[in-house]
């Protein structure tokens, strides 16, 4: 191992140490631990008792039977109003077989282990271009991920599995494990892993075969749970839709509207467009219209970047060479940021930006003006979606003396509302533009960086 790689790995591990230590301390310090894990655990416990996991009253009976009646209304809503798809039960059922004590400890350990492993593997890929920069960025991301340990949100595991799968496919090692990882990630958090899977489908060649294999494995894994849900909850679609609406009501936990003054941690584009239009039909449509051209340009570039037989002399198989992997990283960086914008996402979902680090390292190694745009936008994306930024922002927002200033407080709230979605949008535009430009040119040695 070279000195640069050793230094980069040291930075990553230091960030990982902060993540584990602070995460463990804060998980024990909060009044209610792993609130988001409860959203998976108790509906699964309800299903094991052959009751409807999408009917709030049924889940409440299970929740109360285990002695959680003193909890707050917000915690009770998270634990009993299930918004996860039936496919997610492949991950929650094994934990629901255990009592809460060992189940939540194992879940926390799985978050720590999966996030750290995914970070090391993505650094291994980014270290080919800029080992120190990649190590610093990933270490910073890890040191700002304590909310995953405090809440136990499934994004920590689902995104980690997605990143592990990317490494397996690129390195062509443990491919079967990679297929399984991406299948589980897609089943639990389709709005996080869905566009990554779509990239492999569009890329063609061996990657398209991997995408179809992932889909088949996911269907095989989740078919039994879907049938089980249909038996105990024939109206689960309507019930799940009702639960989603309950969270999105004006002033609700997931309401992005301006009247709510910005829900904590919501980073999708609706948190910005709702400032101008209070009607969900309008601000949702505005977000879709902004994101649709970017997604279309990205999809066309991804389809265009696939290898053809005429270019087979450049590589022994599709996407095995450094030429194609350079373009693949640009594509994944674009989609990591773009995935956050059109539909509901919170700050912990932005850990998917881990996939943007190798692309940033690639452009940094190439030099030119693009390196500074890549560094600045990627760094701002990691900072503004990090836990320290949100902790500081929420502390400012809740300061009574600042609230009394009126215009100053409102100006700060507007800045907080727009900061993350605007930066993610700029990051998406930049990486889509670079990716599309690269795909429009013939492959040269410059792509091998």
Q: Would you mind describing this structure in some detail?
A:
This protein has helices at residues 3-29, 35-48, 56-65, 73-80, 89-96, 100-126, 131-143, 146-151, 155-171, 175-188, 190-203, 205-232, 236-248, 270-273, 280-304, 322-338, 357-366, 369-384, 387-397, 400-403, 407-440. It is mainly α. It has two domains: 1-248, no CATH class; 256-449. The radius of gyration is 22 Å and the shape is globular. The model is unreliable at 259-263, 307-320 and 445-449 (pLDDT under 50).
User: What is the typical, i.e. mean, pLDDT?
Assistant: 86
Structural class by helix and strand composition? mainly alpha
Tell me the Rg in angstroms. Answer: 22 Å
Count of distinct structural domains: 2
- Measured by DSSP, the beta-strand proportion falls in under 5%
Distance between the termini: 19 Å
């Amino acid at each position: 191992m070279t000195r640069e790689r050793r230094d980069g790995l040291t930075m990553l591990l230091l960030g990982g140490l902060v993540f584990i230590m602070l995460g463990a301390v804060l998980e024990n310090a909060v009044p209610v631990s792993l609130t988001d894990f409860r959203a998976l655990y108790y509906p699964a416990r309800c299903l094991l008792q052959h009751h409807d996991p999408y009917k709030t009253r049924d889940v409440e009976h299970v929740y109360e039977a285990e002695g959680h009646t003193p909890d707050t209304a917000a915690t009770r809503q998270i634990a009993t109003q299930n918004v996860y798809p039936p496919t997610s039960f492949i991950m929650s059922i094994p934990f629901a077989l255990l009592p809460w004590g060992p189940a939540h400890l194992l879940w926390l350990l799985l978050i720590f282990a999966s996030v750290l492993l995914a970070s090391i593997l993505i650094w291994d890929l980014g270290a080919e271009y800029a080992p120190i920069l990649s190590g610093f960025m990933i270490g910073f991301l890890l040191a700002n991920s304590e909310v995953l340990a405090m809440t136990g949100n499934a994004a920590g595991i689902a995104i980690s599995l997605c990143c592990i799968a990317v490494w397996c496919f690129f390195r062509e090692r443990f491919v079967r494990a990679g297929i399984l990882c991406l299948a589980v990630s897609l089943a639990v958090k389709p709005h996080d892993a869905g566009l990554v899977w779509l990239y492999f489908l569009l890329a063609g060649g061996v990657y398209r075969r991997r995408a179809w294999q992932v889909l088949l494995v996911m269907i095989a894994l989740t078919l039994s749970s879907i049938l089980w849900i249909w038996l105990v909850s024939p109206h689960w679609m309507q019930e799940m839709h009702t639960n989603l609406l309950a969270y999105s009501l004006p002033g609700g936990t997931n309401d992005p509207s301006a009247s709510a003054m910005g829900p904590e941690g919501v980073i999708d584009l609706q948190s910005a467009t709702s400032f101008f239009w209070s009607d969900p039909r309008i601000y949702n449509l505005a977000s879709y219209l902004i994101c649709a051209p970017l997604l279309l340009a990205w999809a066309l570039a991804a389809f265009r970047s696939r290898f053809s037989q005429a270019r087979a002399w450049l590589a022994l198989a599709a996407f095995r060479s450094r030429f194609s992997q350079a373009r693949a990283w640009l594509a994944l960086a674009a989609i990591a940021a773009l995935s956050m914008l059109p539909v509901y996402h919170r700050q912990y979902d932005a850990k998917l930006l881990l996939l943007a680090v190798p692309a940033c390292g690639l452009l940094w190694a190439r030099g030119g003006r693009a390196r500074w745009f890549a560094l600045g936008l990627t760094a701002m994306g990691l900072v503004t979606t990090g836990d320290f930024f949100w902790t500081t922002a929420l502390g400012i927002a809740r300061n009574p003396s600042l609230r009394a200033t009126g215009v100053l407080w409102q100006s700060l709230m507007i800045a907080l509302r727009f900061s993350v979605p605007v930066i993610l949008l700029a990051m998406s535009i930049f990486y889509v533009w670079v990716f599309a430009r690269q795909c429009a040119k013939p492959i040269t040695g410059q792509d091998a960086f």
